[in-house]
Specification:
Number of strands: 8
CATH topology: Atu2299-like
Distance between the termini: 9 Å
CATH architecture: Roll
Shape: globular
Mean pLDDT: 87
Radius of gyration: 18 Å
Order of helices and strands: HHEEEEEEEHEHHHHH
Low-confidence stretches: 131-135
Length: about 240
């Protein structure tokens, strides 16, 4: 199986149901850092090279170049965006989810540059001109990613302290409610899903309040298990990149 098919059909839908919510307070409701956190660790478990990228995202809804369309943008905002590079493919963004953006066409998955559904996905390195151009280099309906930082922590570091990437949680954050290793348990669940030993838990209307208690109970020693899997699969890709 190709990794893009696994991510599109199994991993992205599961993560979107766990982490996506209606936008509020300037946030898009995508939890992009959580998506990148899990994708990075999962990729390492599958024997694939991976990096976490941080920067900005500009999106325009219309496919008509002469119209402005609806725009989402993190440029000149307090927020930023996070995604991954898997192998030689960038951007790989599982968080892009337009369920709550009725003006935007749906996208199955962002997996590299080029045409993705009705969007043109463009990529640029840190370039201040994009702040003012607002995606003019990417015509029509588009998603423009501008990379500003690469993070490549050891998985052990990230497993021990997910807040190297994630925002510090509120007092009722997931780790407070479900235990400090809940993020690692979600990653291990995704690996079991990838290997065909588990089924998606978020099918139909089952959301985080029902699924996370199941994940917490099912995976006892997730952190050590992830480390063992990474060591076992290091240097041998379990899924094809092409």
């Amino acid at each position: 199986m190709k990794i893009v098919d696994l991510l599109k059909d199994q991993i992205k839908p599961e993560l979107n149901k766990l982490y996506s919510e209606a936008p509020s307070g300037g946030e898009w409701g995508w939890f992009c850092r959580e998506h990148a956190f899990h994708l990075y660790s999962l990729s390492k478990m599958l024997g694939l090279s991976a990096e976490i990228k941080r920067g900005d995202l500009f999106g325009r809804s219309t496919g008509k170049a002469e119209e402005c369309g609806t725009i989402i943008s993190s440029f000149r905002d307090y927020s930023d965006h996070a995604w991954c590079k898997i192998g030689d493919v960038v951007p790989v963004d599982l968080s892009a989810n337009f369920e709550y953006f009725p003006d935007f066409p749906w996208v199955d998955i962002v997996f590299g540059e080029g045409q993705v559904g009705k969007y043109t996905v463009c990529y640029a390195l840190d370039d201040k001109t994009h702040d003012t151009q607002k995606g003019d280099t990417c015509a029509g309906a588009c998603l423009l990613y501008v990379e500003r930082q690469t993070l490549d922590p050891s998985v052990e570091e990230l497993l021990g302290n997910p807040y190297l990437l994630l925002r510090q949680p509120p007092k009722d954050g997931l780790d407070v409610v479900f235990g400090k290793d809940i993020f690692n348990k979600v990653t291990l669940h995704l690996y079991e899903l990838a290997m065909g030993r588990a089924e998606r838990l978020t099918r139909s209307s089952r959301g985080p309040s029902h699924v996370l208690p199941v994940i917490r109970k099912r995976y006892d020693d997730a952190t050590n298990e992830i480390v063992k899997v990474i060591e076992t699969n290091r240097g041998r890709s379990l899924f094809d990149m092409t």
